[in-house]
Write a structure and sequence with these properties.
The chain has 604 residues and is an alpha/beta fold. It has 27 helices and 17 strands.
Length: 604
Amino acid sequence: MANPSISQAKSILHNVFGYQSFRTGQQEVIEAVLSNKDCLVIITTGGGKSLCYQVPALCLEGITLVISPLISLMKDQVDQLLTDGIEAAYLNSTQTLEEQQEVEQKAMSGQLKLLYLSPEKVMTNNFYHFISHCKINLIAVDEAHCISQWGHDFRPEYTSLGGLRKTFPNIPLMALTATADPATRADIIRNLQLNNPHTYLGSFDRPNIRYTIQEKFKPINQLVKFVEKQQGKSGIIYCGSRKKVESLTEKLTSRGIKVMGYHAGMSVAERATVQNAFQRDDIQVVVATVAFGMGINKSNVRFVVHFDMPRSIESYYQETGRAGRDDLPAEAMLFYDPADYGWLQKVLLEKPENEQRKIEQHKLNTIKDFAESQTCRRLVLLNYFGELRQEPCKNCDICLDPPKKYDGLVDAQKVMSAIYRTGQIFGLHHIVGVLRGLNNQKIKDHNHDQLSVFGIGKDKNQEYWISVIRQLIHLGLINQNIMQHSSLQLTENARPFLRGEMPLSLAMPRLGVSASTTLLTKTNNRNYDKDLFARLRFLRKQIADKENIPPYIVFNDATLQEMAEFVPQTRNEMLEINGVGERKLERFGNAFIQLIKDHLAHQG
């Protein structure tokens, strides 16, 4: 058979997947695969990576293998493909032997177009025996950064995937990931033995996501306030320990928020229950450790919160990237406390001293610098990934509400005097208590209520002084000694300021939630009927529950917004809406057309 043409690929994109045109980068990758070339594809989460192999899979004779470490994502993608009328299946450890044999039969008899596999499955001898009976047309390795020790999620089982090249020397191999710095990209090409690959490096920018960092003052209150402002939208809250997952879930539940916790200590069945409830919009929020979310294909996550600091910029970027996959406005909120860095640093230093630890130390330092930066957040992220830009983004906390500077010398002297006079052996909260003149037992026991510095800062609240102290730590004037219960100590650099010999400019402490929280992005300007959108979402949820699939598999939010804007009333008009393919029109179209007609009749 002659090489399939790009016009065939375009008609599959339109008729099967319901999209009017390819996104940036997709067409050139698909053309390369159809010319039998290897590919390295770096496209940000939500940027349409999966279509880069799903469209060629339908153009070519035979079956496409997709290797993914994410069992939840396999199921999700297969459900989505089946809804679009495409024969797809997966093989992984959740299936019985009988179920696996049934899938293998289908693959060998040529019934399947796509087969999803875990890397562990590919390592077995049985796999090579079974796959030799199938006609393979393409092999796609998803989350390919896992093959590199420079990647943020190195998985040893991925290293054996290089063997696929020996077994299938003439089949195109495609490696895909959302995040990979230059060292990781070179590793992927070498370890997977990609042959002069067509490399597509998309932009790492997600303009629809607003990046905000807030210092932790009263973290639970700050979190609850933020989630309540979301008014029932879907979100993920990441935190550093199982214990914290459980206590935050409890706190949010008591405030009437529909929430469930998720961590590695739960049984497989418990985790599946949480995931299903979230996918199906039965709950609003999942509070989770990083065990959750790789492979969450849910397109309408409107916010991601990091309650604790992540370990690297890659992890942060990947986790925040789970918000706004439908290109609609979304928020990424990080609550930051320098003590979080101290704790992660302590954990890291307990690991054996080797190359891997050095890499992790470097990554930990860069996320700390990001959290403490006074520069546009997006510029810091993009420049980290080698996408060099200088123009501020106008959609992060630094751009929307730039830090205001003031002459902070007197405040700094008050803090440093209190540290000095209490003996440089007390932590942040004790120093703040002395400055504010608190009469607590610990202060009395140490006679700190008798000091000249006692109460010299009582005109300012606790959050104000915490912010000043943290800035002095960032500026290197105070050291927080982790080895001695995080006690505050003056550094040599503090002397000239203590004596008043040098000026000192500080940022005005930011107390509470930043004022600019309305989402202003290019995607928010759609002029659609909000009431109709709400009714379409309700219909979608009813259909999804009846069909036993997540709502976004019926249609995603962006598709429903387009319907609410262009109000299609015929089958042809409905096919013009992005995300409505022929199979979905057959299955779901009439109900949505009817609802739109009823809505317009009521308005008339």
